[in-house]
Design brief:
The chain is α/β, with parallel strands linked by helices. The protein folds into 2 domains: 3-111, no CATH class; 123-249, Rossmann fold. It contains 11 helices and 11 strands. It has helices at residues 3-15, 20-28, 44-48, 61-72, 90-96, 134-146, 162-166, 169-174, 188-195, 216-223, 238-249, and strands spanning 33-34, 39-40, 54-55, 80-83, 100-103, 108-111, 123-128, 150-154, 177-182, 200-204, 230-232. The strands form 3 sheets. A 5-stranded parallel β-sheet has the order 8-7-9-10-11, with helices on both faces. It has a 4-stranded mixed β-sheet with strand order 3-4-6-5, covered by helices on one side. Strands 1-2 form a two-stranded antiparallel ribbon. α10 links the parallel β10 and β11. The longest helix is centred in the N-terminal third of the chain and has 13 residues, at 3-15. The chain is globular, with a radius of gyration of 20 Å. The protein starts with a helix and ends in a 7-residue tail after the last helix.
């Protein structure tokens, strides 16, 4: 359910093109749609400006497809998607969901076209420390793009070679908000926040050797940053970073 469909339902009822029973039945599905295994939040776009996103982890391809099919009904031009979808599960999902496509790097199934990048005040910069961090960075970048933001990607510019980061200083300085993704010791967000007057959303990844403890070392390093203006999301949570950046960057309320 999106604002355009809600308006269409009301206008159809007022004009007599829909009966009271038909309108009541349609509105009864506004808060959520109940499936055997899920309560799909069809109201979320009206509340927050962005539809429910399906976490693919722990769900079968059939479950993911069923939820996406509910979400895509009446979504207007708003895309819907599922994160953390394996390459093995993707074919069954895209076959069952009309208009779905699979993006292997961020491991995402998307239904609908990417909207015009006109909802954000400025550019969201997505910076990764290493190439191994790119899947999480791409999840963040794609999430921001699907919310109508312009995104600049700068990958593999970690602290082991800071000259690579400095080479992109103009692009970084021009961004409204920065998402900085790093594994290992997680130092890059502190460096970026110390060099540039932009808010930094730090994303620790599970990339690293044994003592990185699956991203815990990077998470703790980012939480203990000595640079001001660093906020931290959970390990590998590119989606959460992309949503936070989108909400901070948007130039109008979701209802307008």
């Amino acid at each position: 359910m999106d604002p355009q469909r809600l308006r269409a339902l009301i206008e159809a009822a007022v004009a007599g093109r829909a009966t009271v029973e038909e309108t009541t039945r349609a509105l009864s599905e506004l808060p959520f749609r109940e499936l055997e295994f899920a309560h799909v939040d069809t109201h979320r776009h009206l509340r927050t400006g962005f539809p429910e996103v399906v976490l693919g982890t722990g769900k079968t391809p059939a479950q993911i497809a069923a939820i996406l099919n509910v979400l895509r009904e009446g979504r207007g031009d708003v895309p819907v998607f599922a994160t953390r979808v394996s390459a093995e599960a993707a074919p069954a999902i895209t076959e069952a969901v009309p208009g779905a496509r699979y993006l292997p790097v961020p491991r995402v199934v998307v239904v609908g076209e990417t909207p015009a990048p006109d909802l954000g005040r400025g550019v969201i910069g997505v910076v990764s420390a290493g190439t191994s961090d790119v899947p999480v960075a791409e999840e963040a970048a794609l999430t921001a793009e699907l919310a109508g933001n312009r995104v600049a990607r700068i990958y593999d510019v970690g602290v082991a070679g800071l000259h690579r980061l400095v080479a992109h200083r103009e692009t970084i300085a021009a961004a409204e908000i920065l998402i900085v993704v790093a594994g290992m010791e997680g130092a890059l967000p502190s460096v970026v926040a110390g060099l540039y007057a932009r808010p930094v959303i730090a994303v620790p990844t599970s990339v690293g050797y044994g003592a990185s403890f699956g991203g815990v070392a990077a998470l703790l390093g980012m939480l203990n940053s000595c640079a001001a203006g660093v906020a931290v999301v959970n390990i590998d949570n590119g989606f959460g970073a992309g949503r936070m950046a989108s909400m901070l960057n948007r130039n109008r309320t979701p209802a307008t």
